[in-house]
Write the structure tokens for this entry.
Amino acid sequence: MRATKNRLTRRARGWLAESMACLVLLGKGYRVLGRNLGGGPGGEVDILAQKGNTLCVVEVKFRATRAAAHAALHPAQRARLHRLAQAHAQRLGHTGDLRLDAFLVYAQPPFAEHLQNAF
């Protein structure tokens, strides 16, 4: 029972972090095109957003501290996210720029940050 409770808590924290990221992105003038978009065997895109002619794949990380959130951004994720970005761009017929961003949420002030070109 405890594992299920922890899993739900983790899922709820992830949903909250993604919701916060969407609100911040909307406030910055982005258009959120989707959340948790499957990309086949390569994984999923947390948030797909667009601002102007730039399509952004946003990886959301929730960690207890800022340092832990930054440490969760692995260079190995770049290839996976780039592949997913290209697949979604092709599906949408997008011919503009692609960018891989990260949105970090943590339990200390300032609580969140949006990193453009994080990978």
Observations:
- Residues 2-115 form a domain with the Trna Endonuclease; Chain: A, domain 1 fold (CATH 3.40.1350.10).
- The chain has a mean pLDDT of 90.
- The first strand starts at residue 31 and ends at 38.
- The CA atoms of residues 15 and 119 lie 22 Å apart.
